[in-house]
Model the fold of this input.
Amino acid sequence: MLKEMKRIKLLSTILVGLALASCGNIENVVPQSGTMLSTQVQETYAIAPQRAAAPFAGMFSDIGRPAKMYSTPDDWEFLMILFCNDLEGADAVIADSGYNWFSVCGELSSRNANYRNPAIRYRAPYNMIASVNTFLNGFGEDVTDENSINMMAQARALRAWSYMLLCNGFQFSYGTAADKPAVPIVTQETTEFTNNPRASVAEVYELIMEDLNYAVDKLEGASRTSKMYVDGNVAHGLRARALLEMGKYQQAYDDAEAAMRGYTPATLAEVSVPAFYDINDHNWIWGYDMITDLAMNYRYATTSSWLRSFSAWGYAPACQVYTCINKILWDKIPDSDIRKQWWVDENLESSLLDGLKWPGFDDVANANDGGDAKLPYLPYTNVKFGCFSIGTTSNDEDMVLMRAEEMILIKAECKARMGENASATAILEDFVQTYRDASYSASRSGRALLDEIWFQRRVELWGEGFFVSDMKRFNKPLVRFHDDKGNIAAAFRFNLPADDPWLLMRFPQGELNTNFGIVDNTGGHQPVTDENPTLRDGVTD
Amino acid sequence: MKKIRFFVTSLLLVMSVGLFAQNIQVKGTVTDASTGEVIPFASVSVKGTMTGAATDLDGNYQLTAPANGVLVFSFVGYQNLEVAIEGKSVINAALATDQELLEETIVVAYGTSTKSSFTGSAAMVKSEAIEKKVSTNVTSALAGTSPGVQVIAGSGDPTSGGPTIRIRGVGSMSASSSPLIVVDGSPFEGSIKDINPNDVESMSVLKDASASAIYGNRGANGVILITTKKGVGDAKIKFDARLGSNSRLIPNYDVITDPGQYYETYYQLLYYKHLIGDGNTTHTPAQAYAFADQTLFSTSGGLGYRVFDYPEGEKLIGTNLRLNPHATLGYSDGEYYYTPDDWYGETFHNSFRQEYNLSVSGSGERFNYYASGGFVDDGGIIANSNYKRYTGRINADYQVKKWFKLVSSMSFSHANSQTNGSNGSWGSSGNVFYVANNMGPIYPLYVRNADGSIKTENGRIVYDSNNTNFIRPAVVGNAIRDNMYDSTKYLSDVFIGKAGAIFTPVRGLSLTANLNVTSDNTRDAELSSIFGSGASVDGLAYVSHSRMFAINQQYLAEYKSDFGGTDHHMDILAGYEQYNRTSQSLWGQKDHLFNPLVSELGNGDGTSGTRTSSSTNTYISKGFLARAQYEYGDRYFVSGSYRRDASSRFAPGHQWGNFWSVGGAWLISSEPFMRGANWVDMLKFKVSYGQQGNDNLGSLYPWADQYTHSYNEETGEYSLVLSYKGNEDLTWETSKSFNVGFDFELFHGILNGTVEYFARKTENLLYSKDVPYSAGNPTGKVPVNVGDIMNRGFEVSLDGNIINTRNVRWNWNVNLSHYKNIILDLDPSVSENGIKGSNYIYKIGGSLYDAYMYKFAGVNQETGYPLYWKHVEEKDENGKVTNEYDETTDVFDQATKYELGSVMPKLYGGFGTALNAYGFDLSVQCSFQLGGKYYDGSYQQLMWTQDQKGSAWHKDALKAWTPENPSNEIPRNGVYAEAQSATDRFLVSSNYLSINNVTLGYTFPAKWTKKIAMSALRLYVAGENLAVFSVRKGMDPRYNMGLGSMTSGAGLTSSAYAPMRTITGGISLTF
Done:
């Protein structure tokens, strides 16, 4: 028995010893990967303080980060919102194909609480707003450090821009609907999210102006390391857009002028080849600098995949879902205007393609490798937006967010709205004659001046995300077809009056389920083919 | 530390129990009653005392025992034998083998139990049933055979990692509902297909808390215990060879296959689209014909291809909307010749399946061994799809000393497989299943020269990928081509090893240390061919390697006593267990492959497309466990268990959870008052209750905020963004299970069975709670512990022998399960209105499977538009509802979603029979489901004539509404309606009956086989997955779990790897 007791003692000791030796540290299990926990972030900052600037840059990388929320080809955040703002308009057209991930924009079936497309367009700005709020909360009450103030001002500019895009989707313009509900306001002070009702357009713009005034004030004269960031020019430019929307034309004019200080429009030669892909271009005031690594993470969710016609790793070329211009607008562009060549004609020809070749083929437009990378262009396919190389697969092209040409057009519009038609005409003619069409005359088209300005915006800024906000600001109907039914697919072919409630977005289910303060937009119906054939917008008549 | 000291002390206390008496010397030999061979290491003990000895290598023993005592002889695999000493000094014992008792044994947590003493609920599948299945995944043997167990195969892919299993319903909203799989005592997280089913002795499914609470961590959704084989008795060599054929089980839906009919139908669609529109458009018939003529072959809005020839100046479809009688199939534009191909037929083919297993087993003096080798080659039903597995196993136990035994097992599995990359993804033009099932019947698969011959290029066939003068309106590239030229190859090496030591320092006490190791190395090489999907980068090679290493340590102490031969039996178990798992991955990709056929990074010469990454993730759980079982007089059984578990998935401070159970059983048939009831062989009442845990919310770190980062080479700056919002307060989800039932054997084995009722309430659900999008959470969700759900139902399992004679045995089995899922509580913010999704609604009182969809209300007979139900509320000026009613509308945007109740089946189960007569054996196993609903998304897609131009259409589209042939069931083709939204029109009955397995075999009489030195020879044919009967051709509702949509369906849709039928012939030899 004694022997047995000894044996038991010995064995027990061994077993308990083994058990203790095996206790891994369960309280400190962290990943070693591209994902970091907050504790690891803090550790990193402690030993490599230079990394602490990363969250600031992170906000800007989120403007066009591919597939952040959904692993789908239509999830590219703000850049995708801008794209949809054109596709829900009249001028940008994608074929009615099984590969058009944006057909909900063409059909305007995006007014569906359960669709992903409108959810992305709602979530991306609010995610940005939350990042900004968190960032601002990271600073104390009395910040005096210049660098910190600069970053706070930039962050607030991003927040203002986010609200401008949201407002634009969910309500008509400031001019027609200032007192109507827009979207819920979330700031760094917000704690109530589950009963956060929609603020009016005017209330949201009050916040936008607060942020932009702060940004302009603090960023005046500040330098920046890259044009992806916000400096005084960008802040002025954003405020110019806001003031224009609010009908404060003189101030908007001044801001537009301040915004383009140091920037000149792209020259005729520069836009006589596919362009708008490099943030370093001298006409870009603000842009999205696509990080190659992010683009390669999910190459289908990029502007290069959809908006550009030169990528060999994109939906547009591989599936022939090129972003085309609506023929009824293209037909109005004079032949003498270089911008007529920003889109191939019905024979797939454009001077912008002269001398260009798709790798392994004689030309670009007709190159057809069987749909693995490239199918032939469709009539009116855009070649405005270029790539770093033809047949690229890295899809890391930059996207323009603000450029000198827009500021010129804002200035012209402000003058026109203030009744100074001569000044407005001069601004317009000076710009177009110098940079786009030497024989241009503002009156030749026979349009009213404001319509002419809108026409110039629609042509010059095509594909850059301005259509829907412009249409609402000009209080114009959506006119996608005339008697000439053009090149728009039957499923997308309809017109809508300027006040049609179907022009307003609907809140996504995830918001309706959890924010009980929301009263959704209602009214209107899914348009059908050839609806409202008689509507005209003054531009494409 | 405190806990461990307590544990040691209590062990020592238990040790000191012991009784002593007046003794004499007794010796003898222990032999096998049937063979006469001696049995070494058999245990000999004096009943009711701690005194005992073991036999030596010659089967001899010697001990000191009271002259009036009783000796108990025991050995694994033999029945215990009690012999009264009565003063004798030599007592020899011949032990009878324990075959019958083995039948009764149930493998339970940390040990075994007998059917009569088990207080919990378990279903058991034994090797005979497993070996009958022609399947590479052992868990598929649970389908239809185990009550309360749903087996859901997500794919027919031979490389798929085994079916999804749900035990007694879905136990969680956001966290995992998968059971814990335990192989030979250790948690197993590898792929189940790495275990050779032929090596499996039994599978036990533990369903209630008293059986599984001791697994605490992850036991909440049930536990499947897999036990591998051991050698028993004489050396046995067994060889089994099976050869057979795999084919597609479920045919495609009834789609339009006649190209002319397809053109006609599409032409009609275009014609009426213009003529009628939405009822308000005003087009004349002439305009409508013109529109249809102009659009029919167009790429935007039309079909893109012309594959008929017809006389110049005529039209393909006449004004009677019928095919031009002069039209002939096949058309040449001078450059190419176009004629449709049978994509379905060209894609799917039968393939070969072969399987060989060889095993050697036996038990010797100190040894007990089982060694096996196996090979299976399972071909897929498409090209370049197969699974080859080589397995080897050695299970060996060695009795080193009479108080010390080593147990070990080692298995190795090497798999070499090939699959198609895009299986399962809806709408993907790279998914060969989606494309072959959904291609319109007018498109060529190959490019043909003008003379009609198939075009080749450098010896390769040129597939039609929109590289002719026509372009398809849907489906780019050519998935069938890609499947030929691209490849996805997996190689995996899996080692599972166990080493254990069992000490029995004194009788009744055993101390066990077990170390289990799983090492899984898998390499995946994917080639995007320059002739296929990788053309744009001149070929792309992707290679990944993943490594999983898991180690489980177990230290157990168990003490059994009957307190000196009394009617009291006690069994106490205490222990510590820790599980550590490290998962690592490394991958890279390169493009511009010099050699188009080699998918290795070294073959990639491009640099700008190079990408690499790697990661390491760890998971740790550990816990203390204890269990006590008490039995009185073979009639009353009580058990209790406790486990305290910690998981690294939670933040420090929230990691520990306490889990426990109690159970009791009453063997009524052993009561004296039952003696008269001869027809009752066994009757037992059992009841249990307990609490289990679940930590698996998907993320390994759900408690922490998580960030991702990137680097901008142009600016030299890093960026960091929040990617996941964690919750530090997150802790265990607990489920409380109640089980009550009867086990019985009646009429001398004619009717055996179990009837059970269960209620399982899951509390503090690990739930990814939706937060307002406006709060800007990157995932839109926050992990929380909130809400309660309940699954409750009953299970009946019956089996028995109808005939049981020497030459004829006929038995049957049937099992039925019913359960209901109820949501008892939700987050307060959503408790009033519930959580609404695109097709479901979660609300208190409802279930996780309540459909929430639009309701179809017929067809507008003026326009052919579908009608939907719409709920209208009339309100007064104060917003108070004064009147509400339902009406129909043909404006889909005004339609209302309705709550349509649960889609879960009311009843599911299986039945089967086996007949053995004069050497022949025939068995049939079926399963079925009744009273549920299935969302037939694949059918919706085939009827989605608006947007699926160029895709296959169901023949029902021919019955669609037209002005001439109105219908109230099928709206006009091409009318914009619900698009992809879920409508009750596609919610159909999920009833099915499937024949899972039929086996016919013949075993040659032993007197013949003995002449060729063989102890058994059996020939058999087996059909696996033979047939499925459902309400619609093409539909496979077997794997229905919850709600589907158009793009996902509820079960195996047309996007998924279609399930296979296997017909096999085999031979089984035993030496």
User: Anything to note?
Assistant: The mean pLDDT of chain B is 88.
